[in-house]
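Sample 3 of the quickstart, ligand AR6:
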Amino acid sequence: MARIEVIQGDITTLRVDAIVNAANSSLMGGGGVDGAIHRAAGPALLEECRKIAAERRELPGGPCPAGDAVITGAGSLPCRYVIHTVGPVWHGGRGGEDKLLASCYKKSLLLAAGAALESVAFPNISTGVYGYPRDKAAAVAIAAVRETLSGIQGISRVIFVCFDQENYRLYRRTLSGL
Ligand code: AR6
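Result:
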């Protein structure tokens, strides 16, 4: 079973196999962690995203609907790959947000395993602009990662990268079962 870690910091600095981006369905960049990743990666990342978006533009929900994920190279980032996933916008919890958020973590890990990657770092998807309550998002994220890891092989390290102290404390607490 993979080791699950929590750190506080900037996901763009990590030398892991893949970092996960909290993107939007256009895959064309945005604010928050998406903006930070594209700024640090440089134009090569946007170019790759543009190609994937063009190939997937006929999909219902846009090139990357909520709950789905795609993988690209990493441009100038120190990691090797970026997995772009799109979290749900929080609408009060009755729109299947929990399933869509769990799917982001699951599909990202399946893509990483399919590419024979060993270490994957996640931001706290949907907890910024998309407004998902942090405590609920942490519980869904941790459960989805644990469940997915129990069914796949090869991934030895998953890191939850919390930008702010509130999320960091929440993840530490939830992971230790307190
Ligand atoms: N490293 C790690 N985490 C970060 C970083 C960073 N450098 N910067 C921000 N965060 P958000 P969302 C945290 O808003 O809610 C974009 O415009 C942040 O504190 O980035 O899924 C996309 O294009 C928060 O906890 O993503 C979409 O339109 C978490 O990352 C939309 O925002 C997620 O916040 C997606 O919204």
